[in-house]
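TICKET: design request
STATUS: open
ATTACHED STRUCTURE:
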């Protein structure tokens, strides 16, 4: 790390702290040559491998803009989209890889989006998974119904049959 003041090629770490969201480390450094202090921020890089092979840095903003189209007209706030993008980034980073395929990011979006808004999920999935028939939509809706029924049964929300014996 070059000193930004005297360009000395070395520095000493005086203090290290993680950021509020835990994705970066702020380090306070001191130059052994001129004695001045400066701060650096370190983050783990994550690159996205596009379908054409080009690498670009991971961006939560790109996730938000891509999902925002599926959420048009739905009761989804910008805050909801920011939380979704954070969840997707956590899922992607949990793999430990420094590079991830764009397709894998799309797959990582599906589950948090389904939890956020099922209509937006169907819109996104229909484009992302290239639905080309009504059967594709029916299958996806059928899976959502199965998931709802399973979740309700697990919570004990299943409707009890009521006897009308008077």
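STATUS: resolved
RESOLUTION: sequence designed for all positions
ATTACHED SEQUENCE:
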């Amino acid at each position: 790390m070059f000193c930004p003041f005297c360009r000395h090629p070395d520095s000493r770490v005086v203090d290290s702290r993680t950021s509020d969201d835990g994705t970066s480390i702020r380090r306070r450094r001191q130059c052994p040559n001129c004695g001045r202090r400066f701060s650096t921020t370190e983050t783990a890089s994550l690159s996205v491998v596009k379908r054409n092979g080009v690498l670009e840095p991971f961006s939560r903003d790109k996730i938000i803009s891509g999902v925002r189209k599926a959420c048009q007209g739905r009761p989804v706030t910008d805050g909801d989209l920011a939380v979704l993008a954070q969840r997707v980034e956590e899922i992607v980073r949990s793999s430990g890889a420094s590079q991830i395929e764009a397709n894998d990011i799309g797959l990582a979006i599906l589950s948090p989006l389904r939890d956020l808004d099922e209509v937006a999920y169907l819109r996104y999935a229909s484009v992302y998974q290239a639905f080309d028939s009504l059967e594709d939509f029916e299958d996806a809706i059928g899976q959502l119904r199965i998931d709802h029924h399973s979740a309700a049964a697990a919570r004990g929300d299943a409707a009890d049959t009521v006897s009308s014996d008077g």
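CLOSING REMARK: The chain has five helices and six strands. The CA atoms of residues 23 and 107 lie 22 Å apart.
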